[in-house]
Amino acid sequence: MRLVFASNNAHKLDEVRAMMPAGIEVLSLRDIGFEQEIEETGTTLEENSGIKAEAVYHWILDNGHWTIDGVFADDTGLEIDALGGKPGVYTARWYLQLDNGDWKLDNGQLSEREIFAANRAKALRELEGKEDRGAQFRTVITLIGGRKNATEGHNTLQVEGVVRGRIATEEYGEGGFGYDPVFIPEGYDKTFGELPAEVKNGISHRARALQALVESLKV
């Protein structure tokens, strides 16, 4: 089975490929030559993952890639209890949100590493002095597939994975990416940034969503 993962994020691709069972080949957007920018206009994780999957799926049909069995896309949000579930759908660009709720313009000058650091700093700053540091990561995956020619219909399904935990009071570890150095998963005393990749990949929100996806594929 050949599936396209609607992402070029090297960190995500590594995680996804490591978790997928033998028999499923995961292609990136770069692998199929998809270079368009997808505007994520949804207000929920479900909407955004669907928007990405739909955009890539229809591009594949328009370009006649009939050997591809489907497309899946994910959207992940960090939902912090004391902040009413924020940043949620805005997790990746939370650093751009001002204290009054407005958004500053992204000048495109920060590297991915700097963006990750800015987001973590905002999380620690927003929770400074708060006793409740409960949080969860939630990943929603949308899979579109089943169409083999221009006249057949296609199937769509959504699955999710959740991992509960808490936000540390400072950063620990240099592994992983994004918020990993400040998120301590339930049942552990180390952050995702400290835990070995094989441990994180077995318990993470993305792992749980992927497990649900694989079960639905009956591979």
Question: How would you sum up this structure, described in words?
Answer:
- With 219 residues, the chain is an alpha/beta fold.
- It has one domain (2-217): Maf protein (Alpha-Beta Complex), CATH 3.90.950.10.
- It is built from six helices and seven strands; from the N terminus they run βαβααββαβββαα.
- The protein has helices at residues 10-19, 29-32, 45-62, 112-126, 197-203, 205-217, and strands spanning 2-5, 25-27, 70-80, 87-88, 134-145, 155-167, 183-185.
- Strands 1, 2, 3, 4, 5, 6 and 7 form a seven-stranded mixed β-sheet that branches.
- α5 packs across α6 (205-217).
- The longest helix is centred in the first third of the chain and has 18 residues, at 45-62.
- The chain starts with a strand and ends with a helix.
- The mean pLDDT is 90.
- The dominant shape is globular
Beta-strand content:
15-25%
What structural category arises from helix and sheet content? alpha/beta
Distance between the first and last residues' Cα? 9 Å
Spans of at least 5 consecutive residues whose pLDDT stays below 50 are none
Q: How helical, in percent, are the residues? A: 25-40%
Main pleated sheet: 7 strands, mixed
Number of helices: 6
Radius of gyration: 18 Å
Number of strands: 7
Helix-strand topology string: EHEHHEEHEEEHH
CATH topology: Maf protein
CATH architecture: Alpha-Beta Complex
Instruction: Estimate nothing, just give the exact number of structural domains.
Output: 1
- Tell me, rounded to a whole number, the average pLDDT: 90
Can you identify the CATH class?
Alpha Beta
